[in-house]
Structure formats: structure tokens, C-alpha cells
Amino acid sequence: MKAVRIHEYGGPEVLRYEDAPCPVPGKGEVLVRIHAAAINPLDWKIRAGHVKNWLRYTLPMIPGWDFSGVIESVGLGGETSVSEQWKPGDEVYGRPEISRDGAYAEFIAVRASEVALKPKSIDHVHAAAIPLTGLTAWQALFDTAGLRAGQSVLIHAAAGGVGIFAVQLAKWAGAWVAGTASGRNQEFLRELGVDQPVNYEDTRFEDVVRDVDVVVDALAGEIRERSWQTLKRGGVLVTLLGQPPVEEGIARGVRGAGVMVTANAAQLTEIARLVDSGKLKVFLEPAFPLTEAGKAQELSEIGHVRGKIVLRVA
Question: What is the mean pLDDT of the chain?
Fold first, then answer.
């Protein structure tokens, strides 16, 4: 098969479009013919070697852990339930295990439990943009923060990959939403449903947002430190980058928690239902062909994109 692989850590130039062995699905796995794969910051952080101290790969390796495609085959010798659930031709999307080769390729072998039927109302390019960021937003808001109707939430980087889904999911759940973004994205936030857009270029968010139940932090650093004061007592700060200091939360009478997204087919199924019912929309930057994965990663690394960047594979 054709794939994009990394033979050494470095800049975008180390991404090679080349022939690679086609994976063989094992027990409890399916082989998916990939139609589209999304770009996430994790991809270029791995490529650059930023996380090699805790996430080690045998090189060469294939990056990319968001995909949409069609099941090609089901692994032999697996559970009967797998072959009963999935058949060749099923259109699926998923977020595979990041310790294995990823989705910048024509095929990927994944655990059957890591995929769900893709939303019927959108194409593969749009579906590929959902799994990692959609699951991250879901698990931050509901599994970690326990967000419920009538509560309030501050979402940082609300026009970014996770932020866009977090805003829409919070509104679907019946929450009041404040969101930070640049000046050019203020109207976009209103279109998403943000009740109080905050332009971080001219306004300190802590001056205008107070007493929220939940903060979703995708930035860490100074932003996270300033976010504590926006919470009401008993509130929770959920960070997507590491773990917040426990002592800071205790001192303020709030809770801090980190999120490490995990594959969850049931949640992907619910997210697909929300997409098909029109309650959840997907926003993309222009798509790139798989051969231009380096250019796509460069755009992601620069930042300030609206929504997701996707690679067209088939």
C-alpha cells in the first residue's frame, strides 16, 4: 500500500510518501480501507520527537489517529461477535490506539471496538475530522466535568478543533457557554451558539467571565493559571494538556482534572447520531491529498486554524 511514514524525527520534510507493508488484521480487528485521515497536533509533536520520552515507536512508523473509511475485511480467529457486527463494505470512522501505526495510509488495522458507523449525512472527509476531537470534547465535558443542563462553561480556543465540538456539545446539553477566540472568529463563535464570545486580543477573559461551573482548557500555561478565578466554588477546570496542580484547586475550593482521550465506540455512535440530526456540525480547512501531508502538518503547526485539517486518501 501507499503510506506516509517517518524514518527519523524532525521537521515536515521527514514525512515520506512511499510503499509500505499492508497491515493484516488480527483477532478482534478489522482492516479498513481509508478514505480520509485528519491532522491533529499530536501528529506533528510525535513527528518532531516532542513526546518520544513517553510515547516510543519503532521507526519507520505511520502517523495519524483520526480516520474514516470502509471495512475491507475482518480478522480471522476473532470473536464471532466481531464478524457478526462488521462486514466488508461497512462505512466506519474511528480513533485507533496511538501506540500503533496510524492512518496516513491506504489501509489500517484497528480493534473492532475502536470504530463505529460513520455519520450517514456527511462524506468521509468530514467524518474523519470528528473522532479524536469529538471524543476529547465529549470526555472532557461529560465524563470528567459532569456537565449538565443549566450549568455554565468557559471554553478556551473555542474556534479550534476541540473547541468547536465542545461548544456545540455543551449547547446540546443545555449549558450556557462563554468562549475565547481571536477577533476574526467572534462572529463564527456566535454562529456556533456561544452565548458570550470573548476576543482574547483586546479583552482579558477573567474580567468578563465569572462564576462558571466548568472551564475547558486547551492552552495551559498562563491561560490555565488565570482560568481558576473564573470558577465558582465547587467548579472544575478540565485541561487537555497534562494535569493541573491539585493544590491550586484545593485552595480555591474547586477541582482540577486532566483528560487523556480514549477510543469509545458508543460515544462515537452517539456523536454520529447528533451529526445526522443536525445538532453537530463539522468545520474544515481545505483538504490536502495524502502526498502533501507535510504541508498539512505545517499548517496545523502554525496554528489558528478554524476546525480541522484533513488528508484525502481515496
Answer: 94
Q: 30 is written with which cell numbers?
A: 478489522
d(CA 141, CA 148): 9
Which cell goes with 147? Answer: 456537565
What pLDDT digit, counting tens, does each position of 82-117 carry?
A: 767 899 999 999 999 888 999 999 999 999 999 999
Domain that holds residue 173: 133-258
C-alpha cell at 272: 454520529
**pTM (2 decimals)?**
0.93
C-alpha to C-alpha distance for 191 and 61, rounded to whole angstroms: 40
- Cα separations in angstroms, 12 against 5, 259, 301, 306: 11, 28, 10, 21
Residues 10 and 118 in one domain: yes
Does residue 253 share a domain with residue 157? yes
11 and 106 co-located in one domain: yes
The residues, ordered by sequence, that sit 6+ positions from 142 with a Cβ below 8 Å of its Cβ are 169, 173
User: 178 near 157, Cβ under 8 Å?
Assistant: no
Nearest residue to 154 (alpha-carbon basis) of 87, 85, 209: 209
